[in-house]
Amino acid sequence: MKQLIETIVKPLVDYPGDVRVAMDEHDNRIIYKLSVNPDDMGKVIGKQGRVAKAIRTIVYSAAGSHHGKKVSIDIID
Predict the structure, then answer these.
(1) H or E element in which residue 50 lies
(2) Which residue in 39, 45, 42, 46 sits closest to 14, CA to CA?
(3) CA angle 5-7-9, nearest 5°?
């Protein structure tokens, strides 16, 4: 899943080397923490959060069938 998130996000940003994805797993939940360069934050979130929502939709669709756990993505700087 980390690879999928990186594959989606890296082409969107000016600093692809700064893209980091960390995974935090709990009993019934997996949280992916996406970190990007502060200058790229607007590109990843998009107008009214549309890009972030699209990224989440793709990841939720792919992860839902694999893990059987609730998946969420946090975008941090």
Answers:
(1) helix 50-67
(2) 39
(3) 65
